[in-house]
Amino acid sequence: MSASTQQPLRVLELYSGIGGMHWALEESGIDYEVILAVDINTTANKIYHHNFPDVNLLSFGLEKLSLKKLESLRVNAILMSPPCQPFTRVGKKGDCNDVRTQSFLHLLHLIKQLEKKPTYILVENVKGFETSQTRELLVECLSCCGYTYQEFLLTPLQSGIPNCRLRYYLLAKCFGTFNFSVSPQVFTEMPQMHHRHRAAEHCENKPSSYGLSEDVYSLYSPVSSHPPPSNPNKDDGSSESHTLSTETISKDNVSHAQIGQNIGPISVPDFHNLSSGNPEQELDNHAAELKDAGRNMRYCEEEEKFVNKHSRPLSEFMETLSDKDLNQYLLSDKELRFFVVMDIVFPALKKSICFTKRYGHYVEGAGSVVQMCTDVQVTREASNFKSLAVELQNSQEWQEKELSLLRRLKLRYFTPREVANLLCFPSNFTFPDGVSNIQKYRVLGNSLNVHVVAMLIKLMVT
Question: Which portions of the sequence form the region Disordered (predicted)?
C-alpha cells in the first residue's frame, strides 16, 4: 500500500476507556493523530495514559463539551463507544431517559450545530442499541447532517477469534459514499468492497499489528440483509447471534503470533496413554473425547456454523502459568457452588462466552472459566453430576464428596492478560502498577474487540 499524500486523520476519541479505539487505529494501518481522548473513568484513564502518555487525555463528562471547544479541535473523525448500560438486555433499558445517555445526546446536538462536520463517525455499542430510541435519534442526526451510514452486528467469532462479543457498530461518512452498497438493514457480515485493491486515502505503508492483508476484505462474502435474533445466554447485554455466515471466517484474518507476543503457549498435557504412531492425532482424539465428555458443562455454541477449522483455539490466547500463578485464579469452594451456571471451556476449544465487567467477581453469565484438568473420566463424572445438580437444585447441601469432584476439574478464571488477548489488544498493551485484577476485568469488560473495530475503520476510510 503506497504512502499517503493526505494529512493524518485527526481523530477525537470519546468514551475512550482503556484505548480500544486507539489500538484499533494502530492496527488498521491508517495515518492518524488522536487530537483528544475523553473519558470520565479514572481507572480507565490511568491505563490509557500508561499506554499513550503523549495523547491529550481529559477527564470530564461529555455533557460539558462546548460547541466552541469541539469546533476548535478541527477533527475529521469521531470514534466513540457510549455507555452501554441503558441498552443492555439485563439492564433497566432506560434508553434516552437514562442519565448515562445524556452526554451522547448532547454530542448529537453539537454535531448538528457544527459548521464543518467531521468526515467520519464510528459508534460502537451493545446488541440492543439498534432497536433503541437513542439509535433513532442518532440516525436522524446523521441523516439531517448529510451523512451516509451503515449499521452492523458483528462478532469476533467471524474472524476466527474464539470469543463471543456480538456488538452494534455504525459507520458514517459525511457528503460521500462508502466503497460498498449501503442498506437500511443491519449488516451481519463485513461487506465486500467494489474496488478492493484501491488504497485508503489515509493509509500508511506499514503493516498492521495483527497481520491483516491489504486485500483483507476479499475474504468476506456479500452481506446479509437480515439482522440476527437474540441468544438467551446470560450476560450484560452482549448476547450472541447464531445465524452469521461461515463464509466470513478466514485463517488469514489475524496472526496471533502478534497477540500476547511474549506469552508462551499453554503447556500441552502429558498424556501417558499416547501411542508412538501418531501423537498429534492422539492429541486430537483426546481433545475430541474431552470435548464430548464435558459438553453438558458448556453452552454448546461450539456447534455454530462460523466456528470451523479456521477458528483459533483458546490455547493460542492463553498464558503459560506456574502453579503459584495458577492458584490465584482457581475458583474457591464458594464459587464452585455456582458450577451449574458456569460456561466451562478448555484450551483446545474454539469459543468462549462474552467477558463482562463482572468477570472475576461473578461466575454466572460474566464469561467462561477454564478447565485445566485433562482427565476424560473426571470430566464425564462432573458433567453427569451437573445434570443431577440441575434437577435437585441443592448446591448449598453439597459436601466434601461433591466439592472434591469439582476441585479435580481445576477450574480457573482467564487471566486479565488472556482476556486482553481475546479482545485482540496487542502484546505492548500493559497495565500500570497498582491496578487490581478486579479493576482490570472491569475495564476490559467495558472495552471492545480491537481487531473487529480495526477492520471497520479501514472499511470506513477506504
Answer: 221-248
